[in-house]
From TrEMBL:
InterPro entries: HAD-like_sf (IPR036412), HAD-SF_hydro_IA (IPR006439), HAD_sf (IPR023214), PGP-like_dom2 (IPR023198). One of its GO terms (molecular function) is hydrolase activity. It comes from Luteibaculum oceani. It comes from the Bacteria. Keywords: Hydrolase. Pfam families: Hydrolase. SUPFAM superfamilies: HAD-like (SSF56784). This is HAD-IA family hydrolase.
Amino acid sequence: MYSFQKDRIKIFDLGGVIINIHPPLTFNAMKDRLHPSRDPALAEAHFQKLFTKFEIGSFDRLALLEQINPWLNQQLKYPEFEKIWNELLLDVPKHRLQCLLKLKEKEEIYLLSNTNEIHIQAINQYLRNEFGVDGLEAIFTKCFLSYEMNQRKPDASIYQSAMRQIPGNADSYIFFDDTFENVEGSNSAGLPAVHVPNEKNKEFWDYLCSQ
């Protein structure tokens, strides 16, 4: 049962809280295309390191592909790679978006996400096509995105950077994230956080959106 204070300044994670995601879809698609000489476990570890660096803006999308292609049995062209990369993105349930838009009418709300330029572009296009909403910036007062900030959760610096840019103080904020490690990092950095695991996502939104 959730019982956080609803009058606090709300900061949301994106994947797993707002948009449903399933990362194995992308990882498995990559592994299916591995060169026979490559060890799957080593490849997954290598890809994970690349993805983490991509999330902090260490290189652009084409440079990412250049570092992935040598591990594959066939060189991917960018359009095919983008399709595979975005397979992990599922949907934004309508009631979540409606709740956010209602909150936006009466208060400032913020986004703090480990993400990358490809996924943000895809999510923004999805919101336009599916709901007629002009991307995440039409929903949130400000979006704090790891690849633009060159920082990522659970490093303390990203939470502290966000707090410096949001009016108020630590006691007036509340952050929602589906990853326990990120919640712990947030609390340690002084940003009060609530864990929203997948199995409690509906309960969370029902409580948040109730009058």
